[in-house]
Amino acid sequence: MAVMVNNHGHDTIEWQRALQRQLPSMPVYAFPEFPCADEIHYAVVWHHPHDDLLKYKNLKAVLILGAGTDHIDAAPKLPEVPIVRLVDPAVGTDMSQYVLYWVMHFQRGYDVYREQQQQQHWQRHAYPLASDYQVTFLGAGMIATFIAKRIALNGFKVNVWNRSSRDSMPEGVSFYWGDSGLSNALKATQVLVNCLPLKPQTNEFINHAVLSQLPAGAHFINVSRGGVVKDDDLIQALNKGQLTNAVLDTVTHEPLNKHHPFWLHKNVFLTPHMSGATYTRTAASVIADNIKRIEAGQAPYPIYQPPQRTVS
User: Fold this and answer.
1) Of 17, 260, 273, 293, which residue is the catalytic one?
2) 77 with 58: CB under 8 angstroms?
3) What is the rounded CA–CA span in Å between residue 76 and residue 51?
4) I need a surface site. Which of 71, 81, 106, 259 has the fewest CB within 10 A?
5) pTM
6) What percent of the chain is helix, strand and coil (3-state, nearest 5)?
7) Is residue 269 pLDDT above 80, yes or no?
8) pLDDT tens-digit profile of 114-168?
9) Computed from CA positions of residues 185, 158, 145, 105, in that sequence, does the dihedral angle turn out positive or negative?
10) Within 10 A of 116 (CB to CB), how many other CB atoms are there?
11) Is 225 a catalytic residue?
12) Contact at 8 Å (CB) between 270 and 87?
């Protein structure tokens, strides 16, 4: 019984060593260096070759090295074993701090003060109370609700919208769902935060139809996937003043093409997909705990749910 790990060629040896420290009695191999495929019971992977996962006849589970599931969603066929997403609280904390930084930046108007400094101009401006400043999250997954809870704990007025209903939300968070709920969630939003996963149903979901429902001058933050946003419509919303700023931690094609208009747009803030770094030490502990749960006959958490596929 052994573990195979492949982080798409990035720091795979570091992951191997971290997992080995967590699982001292179970051999951990870095893909593709292992003695026998039949020995592999657990595949810990990120952007792993799809067909390779079908080769391990004794596989008990696939554990994803990240919160995103795009690469797994795209697989034509998957092994019939539990596929476990990685939800590391350390990543949620990082992403919460990233979003809070930008929410406060816009609420307090820090960019205005930066411009005034450059002009040697001293003037104080009024800003809304946090309790009057509405932040709306698109998506109600574990990461979205984790961040929403943190923003609410800092006194902001928080909405969460999702395509389907949810049983509960953190205290201080209002929940909306479905098409009619979307309009109600957006109508007084000052900061819109995208946490929707990229699925066929959410591809370019944030387009003119969605952005036009925001109050003029709203702000946008994307910490999910670039493909959820229609770039041309986002740029148009910025140029027309429907949006004041857009913070993009992720774009459709990464790294961003050097000729893309996002680079030089004065109202776009770009960061290179760093809002929530995966820390090897903390994530390895989460992954190892799930492997131990499976070995003890318990269910791992959270289980990946495949997207609904359109039948043609």
Assistant:
1) 273
2) no
3) 9
4) 259
5) 0.91
6) 35, 20, 45
7) yes
8) 999 999 999 999 999 999 999 999 999 999 999 999 999 999 999 999 999 999 9
9) positive
10) 15
11) yes
12) no
Using the structure block, give the residue that is written with the tokens 């990685």: 86
Of the residues 225, 265, 281, 309, which is catalytic?
A: 225
Spatial separation of the C-alpha atoms in residues 205 and 138, rounded to whole Å: 10
Full set of structural domains in the chain with CATH? 2-88+278-295 (3.40.50.720), 89-270 (3.40.50.720)
Query: Alpha-carbon distance 41 to 227, whole Å?
Result: 34
Distance from C-alpha of 141 to C-alpha of 264, rounded to nearest angstrom = 32
Beta pairing partners, 218:
243
CB count, 10 Å around CB of 308? 9
Whether 34 contacts 4, CB under 8 Å: yes
Q: Any idea how long the chain is? A: 312
Structure tokens at 208: 């003119």
- 158 phi and psi, to 5 degrees? -125, 130
Residue 71 one-letter amino acid:
H
Q: Say how far apart CA 257 and CA 266 lie, in whole Å.
A: 17
Q: Which helix (H) or strand (E) holds 162?
A: strand 157-162
DSSP state of 4: E
CA count, 13 A, side-chain hemisphere, 188: 9
